[in-house]
Design brief:
With 341 residues, this protein is α/β, with parallel strands linked by helices. The protein folds into two domains: 142 residues, 2-Layer Sandwich (ornithine cyclodeaminase, domain 1), CATH 3.30.1780; 175 residues, NAD(P)-binding Rossmann-like Domain (Rossmann fold, 3-Layer(aba) Sandwich). The chain is 35% helix and 24% strand. The chain is built from eleven helices and 16 strands. Strands 1, 2, 3, 4, 5, 6, 7 and 16 form an eight-stranded mixed sheet that branches. Strands 10-9-8-11-12-15-13-14 form an eight-stranded parallel sheet, sandwiched between helices. It is globular, with a radius of gyration of 20 Å.
Amino acid sequence: MLILTAGQVRQVLDGAEQQVVEAVSRAYRLHAAGRTVLPHSLFLRFPEEARNRIIALPAYLGDAGDAGDTGARQPVAGVKWISSFPGNTAVGLERASAVIVLNSMRTGHPDVLLEGSVISARRTAASAALAAATLAPREPQTGVTLIGCGVINFQVLVFLRALLPELAEVTLFDLDPARARAFAERCAARLPGLRTAIAERSEDALAAHRLVSLATTAATPHLDPSPCPPGTLLLHLSLRDLAPETILSSVNIVDDGDHVCRESTSLHLAEQQAGHRDFIADSIGAILTGGRRERDPEALTVFSPFGLGVLDLAVADLVRHRAQEQGLGTDVPDFLPAPAQ
């Protein structure tokens, strides 16, 4: 068993944004081609605290087959086990923690154990940045609004800067002004040259740019996007910020319709209200496979990625190979029982 810690995962992923985006893009294309197995995520919830949850995401990411991906890796199977305890932030702990297990496709034995929250944050950010680049308007995207100043949106900003070199300005909003200020300071330290503004109201933040990333801990719809300029793309990463009426009146791009219309997401509520899923215009995998899709210059476009386990496997597999090349990780040869004699 190879064990990779959070620090080792960061070591191989820092500066590797393009490679992570390529891994995520490939996973989306393989999923669109039917070369994945993706059971529904399993949510473990607790009656004492409804906000807390732990989610299991099992998945299988196959080979390219007829998809023609000459840079394909070997198939990989595994599971991510990720918790979200929003109250952690009040006591100085990270909201999310996770492990990822990769299994041998020859024996089924678990052979790699990775710290998973770093991978999870970066695959989420990579998918958001990939959507922003794929659904780009004709004119350059020079600014972005971030609603929610936590780990996810900081990584979104890092990946957006990697894919959209013209990005020069970010507007921040968080219910906790101190978090927004700390986020701005981190931007100044890590992303020099990026102009940063803090909005006092969400309405002002939404009106600032035509690219918006939502990464909150909201459990129910709370955000009115009416201040958004025409043609805005909302990266709806937290999935529960928007009312069903907003979803039904928008151009909706998803990662997987069956997965995203569950667990009281905004799209799930919209499906319950409308009685159908016709409001879903396309999937990101189909767009990546079939070519560029023009963003509607007048409508609100909403990208709602449920967060597919195959993305975690793709990035974890990338980490595994890069770590082995660099001699990182702890090998525990006696982790599993010895073969019976």
